[in-house]
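Fold this complex.
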Amino acid sequence: MPVELSTTCEVPITFGDLDPMGIVWHGNYVKFMERGREHFGRAHELDAMSIYAMGWSTPIVRSVLEHKAMLEYGDIVEIITTFVPSPAAKVVLRYRIQAKGKGIVAAIGETTQVFLDRERRLQLIAPAFFQEWKQRHGAH
Amino acid sequence: MPVELSTTCEVPITFGDLDPMGIVWHGNYVKFMERGREHFGRAHELDAMSIYAMGWSTPIVRSVLEHKAMLEYGDIVEIITTFVPSPAAKVVLRYRIQAKGKGIVAAIGETTQVFLDRERRLQLIAPAFFQEWKQRHGAH
Amino acid sequence: MPVELSTTCEVPITFGDLDPMGIVWHGNYVKFMERGREHFGRAHELDAMSIYAMGWSTPIVRSVLEHKAMLEYGDIVEIITTFVPSPAAKVVLRYRIQAKGKGIVAAIGETTQVFLDRERRLQLIAPAFFQEWKQRHGAH
Amino acid sequence: MPVELSTTCEVPITFGDLDPMGIVWHGNYVKFMERGREHFGRAHELDAMSIYAMGWSTPIVRSVLEHKAMLEYGDIVEIITTFVPSPAAKVVLRYRIQAKGKGIVAAIGETTQVFLDRERRLQLIAPAFFQEWKQRHGAH
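Structure:
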C-alpha cells in the first residue's frame, strides 16, 4: 500500500498579510501553498531548482483554493502538503492550511504542475527521474 | 435572453511581477482577478465597499486559475471579467487574462463569493439588493 | 537651465492593498515607486530592460520612503516620478505619491540605482549611453 | 550602560520572492523588516496589536533600505532587529538582513514609527507605557 507523502511547515502571520476585515487576505494563500510546496520539495527531493537542473521546468497550470475559515493576526499558519498520486505526467499537491492548535481548517488547496523541457515543450510522458521518484517513494 | 455582463481593464506588468524564468509569477494572477473584480464592481454597482455599507461582506470561498500561456515583461495585461448567473446566494465571476493585442489567453480564472451578515453568518438566500441587482441587469 | 524630467502615472487601489486600519499598507508603496519608475523609463528611454540589453543591470542600492498621509480605498494613486540630476554613476529618482484630486501628498520616496556590468562589477563611471542620455535630456 | 535590545528571526526564500535576475526582488525586503519588527515586538512586549489595544496605533512614517549584496534561492534570510534608543516620541528599529551562515550583510534597514491616538492625532510626547517600557528595558 502506498505511503502518504506529506510534510508540515509553519509560517507566522504578519500585519501586512491582513485585509481591512482584520483577517488574512485571500490572495496570500497562494504564498502559503508555495511555502508548503517548497518545504515538501526540500524534504522529499522534489524541489523546483533541482528539477530545473535536470532539464525541466514545472510550471503550475492549475490551482484551486477553497476557503473554509479565517486566519487571524497572531495565528501561526500550519501548511500540510500532500502528494496526490496520478498516472499522468503531472505533479499534483494538496494543501491543508490551518491555524496551528485551533483544529479548524482555514483552506484546502490543490496545485497541478506539468513538465516542460528547455524548449518549453509540454511532456506527455513523465520524465524518467519522476517515474523513479514515484517508485522510490511508493507514490504511484 | 440575458445580456452578458462584462468589463475589461488593463494593468501593466512591472519588474517585480516577474519570476526567475522572466515571466509573470503565477501567484500574481490572484491580483489580476482582484483588479478585474473591482473594475467590474465599480462599473456595474457591485463593489465590495458599497455592499459592505449595506450590511454584507462577500468573502471569496473558492478560486480557480487555469494557466494556458505566459505573460512577459512589456505586456499589458487585459482582464475581462464576466458575471456568471447562478440561482444560489453567490457571486460567481469568470476572468480571462491575456496580453493585450497578442490574441492568446494566458489564464482563465473563476471566483465564488458568498454573503455574510455583520455577525459573519452565511446567507443561504441572496440579500434582496442582490436579487434586485440581478433583475435590473437581466442576469439571473 | 536644465528642464525637469518628470512623468505622472495612475494606479487604482485594490482591496488587497489595504491593511487592517483600512488604509494602504506601507509596504505597497515600494510597488508604487516601481510603477512610477517603469512609467518614467518607458516615457524617457530609460527602462531597465533596454538598459539590460545594452549590457548593464541597474539594481536599487538605496530606497527611502517618508509617509505623510494615508491612501484609502477608492483613491486613485498618482505617482509623479522625477529625475534627480547627479554627477555620480547613479540613477536617482524621486517620487511623489498622492491620492488623485485630493491635493495631499501621501508619501515622498527616493531610489538610487547603480550600474553593474554583466559580471556584476560596480561601475564608478557612468556608462557612455547614460552620459549621452543626460546630455540629450539636459539633465546633468 | 543600556543593554542592546535585539532579536534574530529566520525566513526561507521562496520562488515567488525572486526577480528575473534570480535574486530576491528588492521590494520584498520591506516584508523582511516587517517580519523582524513583529518578531522583536513579540519577544519584547512591543507588538503592534498590544499597543493598539492600549489605544495607540504606530504607523511607519519613514523607512530606509540600503542594499549591499544579493539574496539567492536556497538562502535562509536572517533578520536581526535592534531597538535604536531615541528621546523622541518614536519607535526606531534597525534591521540587518543577511543570508544565514554566509557572513555577508545583504541589506541594512531602518524604520521610524510614531504614536497616533484613536483620533489619529500625532503624539509629540511618548505615551506613558512606552516611557515605562524604555525604563524597564534600559533603552533610553
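Chain C has one domain: 6-136.
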